[in-house]
Amino acid sequence: MNAHAVDIALLPSPKMTECCICFNQALVSLHGATIVLDVRNCFPHITLAMGCVLEESMDALKHVLDEAARTFRPLYLESGEIITTKNGFSGFVVKNTPVLQYFHETVMQKASPFFFYSAKKEMFFDSKHVNEETLSG
């Protein structure tokens, strides 16, 4: 079975990406981390949905997501506090606005029929950079 682990995500602006990476680097230097952000292997993002998708379903998933995305204007998001967890994760808390919530629900509704949830390391694009925390949720 050929399948891929998929993270459907919003990507921040270049300025916000740089800010997230800088904050992450500062937190890593203070506390250590299992997830270190950069623009190559661990891009800052806001996950809307995650799952595994069969190779033969990828084009259909892309199509329904493209259609859904065309119905929304660019989203303006508010970030607030920075959180860190015991397992070395850090991130910004993003305010869950009604528009962001509706977009998330739309993405989930469109993507759910394509998803299954038994991820294996080899389903990831670059499995050498996959942390066990990613697989266990």
Termini gap? 22 Å
Number of strands: 4
Fraction of helical residues: 25-40%
In round numbers, the mean pLDDT is 85
Shape: globular
The major sheet is characterized as: 2 strands, antiparallel
Q: State which percent range the strand residues make up.
A: 15-25%
Neighbour order of strands in the largest sheet? 1-2
Helical/strand content category: alpha+beta
Radius of gyration: 16 Å
Question: Which ranges are low-confidence, i.e. pLDDT below 50, for 5 or more consecutive residues?
Answer: none
Q: Helix-strand pattern, N to C? A: EHEHEEHH
Number of helices: 4
Q: Topology, pairings included?
A:
Elements: E1 3-10, H1 14-31, E2 46-54, H2 58-70, E3 79-84, E4 90-94, H3 98-111, H4 132-136
Helix pairs in contact: 2-3
Summarize the structure in words.
There is one protein chain. By secondary structure, this protein is an alpha+beta fold. 36% of the residues lie in helices and 20% in strands. A two-stranded antiparallel sheet has the order 1-2. Strands 3-4 form a two-stranded antiparallel ribbon. The two termini are 22 Å apart. It is built from four helices and four strands, in the order E-H-E-H-E-E-H-H. The radius of gyration is 16 Å and the shape is globular. The mean pLDDT is 85. Helix 2 runs antiparallel to helix 3. The longest helix is centred in the first third of the chain and has 18 residues.
